[in-house]
């Protein structure tokens, strides 16, 4: 099975080279795409990893490649040296595909969506096969097409998993800096803007949070253990505490204290 968790020891610091950085609240410097961050050491490790937030790089602590980094280095190029533009092109395809695989794999685990398991297994195998392709083949892959194929299945899996809950429709809702009112159990929060939202003590049991923006959201004491499609980057972007309940397989970020 394709790895969906980052293994930086088997990568080559791609997330410190490929993306462009813009001086902002998330990054202390401007950096062009394809240029190494000045904090990247020769061994491909971050020289300020333990103090990224206090040094003005909280955006780095949020990022996660879903294992695409080591896939590019170890599988696509077989550990051999490659030009930055080639690495960037392959990574640009594999990172969103690995995130898609994460969501498909999550849906395969929804007990209420067991009837969809064969279709989800087929989709997972199809996308997984693409991720092992050569750089030349990856260059012609349409991420949008694969996402479009997955969309209806993921939405149906979500609908089945949320059955029997209040299931409020808050898809794409602007909840920036707000405290959502009402019962959030089973809510559709897909692509919702939860930036700085007050979710303290909120019960998000079976709430669909696919694509939701959790930057700065206060999830102290929140129940996220059974939220649907929650990812590590979303958790990293939020502010929680020891009382925040997370799903198995997701880590409590160090900045939560």
From TrEMBL:
Domain of life, per lineage: Bacteria
Pfam families noted in UniProt: Pentapeptide
Protein name: Pentapeptide repeat-containing protein
Organism in which the protein naturally occurs: Jiangella mangrovi
